[in-house]
Specification:
alpha+beta, Alpha-D-Glucose-1,6-Bisphosphate, Chain A, domain 4
Length: 166
Amino acid sequence: MTPLPGDTRRVPLNHYRFRSVWSVDCLPSDAFDVLADLGSYPLWWPEVRRAVQIGEERAELHCRSFLPYELVFEASHHTRDAEKLVLVANLEGDLNGTVGWRIEPRGKGARLLYEQEVTVDKPLLRTLGPLLRPALVANHELMMRHGKRGLRTYIAGFTKGAVLRG
């Protein structure tokens, strides 16, 4: 994260802000349904290794990408608005902060805006974060590429299954 010009506040080196835009070939409401189901993430996002559903709006997620560490955190929706196609969750654990999806119709598909603002509180990463920051950012970018590819594949089967059932 880069401070705005004139901003004299120091940004902690364990603080990250990410933004990604994905396009998928499906109805926005179908994308919303898949993204709202925290327990399904391991089915389509390779780096989400495990999801333990704790409640209807809460799951414990275990994530691991290329680098040899696992992040474990709870995600709990505090905004789940199917009409406005907005999802926002609080994260607590090795990552603390928020993550959200905004879904918009685009042509025959949907545009997904992913935004995450977190601090990494896993002790080893907090300690080594200043040295590893470029690698952690690259690791996150790899995870996002895999997530986008996985969601596109999953959503293709999801929508095809709906047609076959209907």
